[in-house]
Structures are given as structure tokens and as C-alpha cells.
Design brief:
79% of the residues lie in helices and 0% in strands. It is an all-alpha fold and 203 residues long.
């Protein structure tokens, strides 16, 4: 196992990473979009890597995980096509109508729907889609949306962990370790099935 030694190269790259994340987190203060901050950080890393001799443009291109890039691009395309069709809205409203005002049933069904969709879509995308719908449904029922939003956030993470395409880090790990989709589901599926039981107190 290679021993890591703290040196100038690690210090420079760590500082660039630190300042880049600080710029992303303080987007609301300086008004520069986080994507521009990330791109600027990547450019600074390449320039300083050239100067200090620990990075180069070829290494930057090789470091890009194209599987993750194309996965996210494909998911965003699918979602952008499906949202105008009203399919997600119909699912949410059908669940709300079926629950007939029974809040626990509504939460259970909505959480199940979010979990299942998070198996195939990015969990952040799922929450972004269903968050506004949950708020509208709760407003019509005159109840607080906070418990429903918390349940959706927790269960979307649960569903996202189960599959290789449910969350970008999953695909990054699977791509680096050469783990197939089926192997990932076999090893993670059982834990995901038990996870809602652990989340029940929060619901």
C-alpha cells in the first residue's frame, strides 16, 4: 500500500479544493453561480498542477468519469421530457385521492412512490419533482408539509442507495470497482428493504 506523505503538492491541491467549496457554499453572498465556481476551481487546479508538476490537462480529462456525466445527462433529459406530460403530477394526485385524507396512508404511499422512482432516477431529481407536489397536496389538506417532505427526503435516499443508477456516488464507486448493476442490487437491496423500518420513527 502506497504511503501518503504530506508535501507541497497536497497542500496546493487541498487549498484549491477548500477555496472552491467555500465559493460554492457562499454563492448567495458573492452572486457567482456555483457551476462557474466549480469550473474556475478546476481551471486553477490544472494551472497550478502544471506549475508545480503534479497535474496536467491530459490527467484532468482522464479524471472525468464519463459514466456519471452521461447518466446525469440522460436522467435530466428523461425528466425534462416527462414533466410536461403531467405523469408525475397524476401519480401524486392519484395517491392523494386514494388516501382520502388519511395522513399516515398518504405519507406511506407517497414515500413508497418516491422510493421506487429513486431506484431508477437520481434521488435529488425525485425530491425536486415531488417536493412542490407534496406542498400543494398538504396545502389543500391544510396540514403541515414538513413531515411529508422529511419522509420523502429520507426515503429517496433509501431508494437511491439500492441501485447503481440511483445516486451518482453509486455509479462512481461501481465504475471504479467494476461492479455490475445486478451485483450492486444484490448486495444493497436487502439493507434498503430494512431501512424504511429504521426510518419509521421519523415518519
Amino acid at each position: 500500500m502506497e504511503e501518503l506523505v504530506w508535501n507541497t503538492d497536497m497542500l496546493v491541491s487541498s487549498l484549491v479544493l477548500l477555496f472552491t467549496f467555500a465559493a460554492i457554499f457562499t454563492e448567495g453572498i458573492h452572486g457567482v453561480h456555483r457551476v462557474k465556481c466549480a469550473m474556475a476551481g478546476a481551471a486553477v487546479m490544472i494551472v497550478l498542477g502544471q506549475i508545480f508538476g503534479f497535474y496536467n490537462p491530459e490527467g484532468a480529462v482522464e479524471a472525468i468519469d464519463w459514466d456519471v456525466v452521461f447518466l446525469l445527462g440522460g436522467m435530466m433529459t428523461i425528466v425534462a421530457i416527462m414533466i410536461p406530460t403531467g405523469g408525475f403530477q397524476q401519480l401524486a394526485y392519484a395517491i392523494a385521492d386514494f388516501s382520502k385524507g388519511r395522513l399516515f396512508l398518504l405519507m406511506a404511499l407517497m414515500g413508497t412512490l418516491v422510493t421506487v422512482l429513486s431506484l431508477l432516477l437520481d434521488n435529488v431529481t425525485t425530491v425536486v419533482i415531488f417536493g412542490p407536489l407534496i406542498i400543494l397536496i398538504c396545502q389543500s389538506l391544510r396540514v403541515s408539509a414538513i413531515p411529508f417532505l422529511l419522509a420523502a427526503a429520507l426515503l429517496s435516499d433509501t431508494g437511491g442507495v439500492a441501485t447503481l443508477v440511483g445516486d451518482p456516488p453509486n455509479l462512481m464507486i461501481g465504475s471504479a470497482a467494476e461492479i455490475s448493476f445486478n451485483d450492486f442490487v444484490i448486495h444493497m437491496g436487502a439493507m434498503v428493504e430494512l431501512n424504511p423500518v429504521l426510518h419509521t420513527p421519523y415518519c
